[in-house]
Amino acid sequence: MVDNIKIEDLNRFNELGTLINPNFTKLFNLENILNSTYDYIIGYYDNNDLIAFLHITKSYETIDIVNIVTDSKYRNKGIASVLIDHLLTMFNDTKTIMLEVNEHNNPAINLYKKHNFVEMYRRKKYYGNDDALIMKRDV
Ligand SMILES: CC(C)(COP(=O)(O)OP(=O)(O)OC[C@H]1O[C@@H](n2cnc3c(N)ncnc32)[C@H](O)[C@@H]1OP(=O)(O)O)[C@@H](O)C(=O)NCCC(=O)NCCS
Q1: 122: domain range?
Q2: pLDDT digits (tens, 9 = 90+) for 107-137
Q3: Cβ–Cβ contacts within 10 Å for residue 128, how many?
């Protein structure tokens, strides 16, 4: 089931986020995000347990994907795809979706390509020795 995430999901949000970045809890404060008018987090729930989320920011007609993560046990079941498809139904004024991804993160790059994102340019050595790919989808 897909739903907006809630402050009650804080522990699972932090657990899932730490899979992306060990400093996740220092960088992302769920309470602040929920109070922001630019941020939205869509959760995917299995029996009320948060098992994946998609965090975006929206500014006018542009959406930026901040983070997307699926619990390791639930990967390759189409859950991230459900979240991206749901995002496309949320706003009817969106023209562009942008994101950045490590050049070696093949699962994520494949996910984005499957959803019609294309590489725009690279930020050299953005992640230590690795480049960031900036990808875009026109809606
Ligand atoms: C990237 C991630 C969110 C994908 O989540 P998921 O729920 O497993 O994705 P889905 O099952 O919806 O997969 C959709 C598509 O993604 C691609 N994909 C997913 N996992 C993949 C893998 N291990 N290897 C290659 N491609 C993969 C495929 O194109 C897949 O489509 P297909 O099943 O038709 O082949 C997940 O691997 C993850 O949480 N990774 C760690 C966090 C991360 O790196 N996030 C992105 C940067 S913030």
Answers
A1: 98-139
A2: 999 999 999 999 999 999 999 999 999 999 9
A3: 6
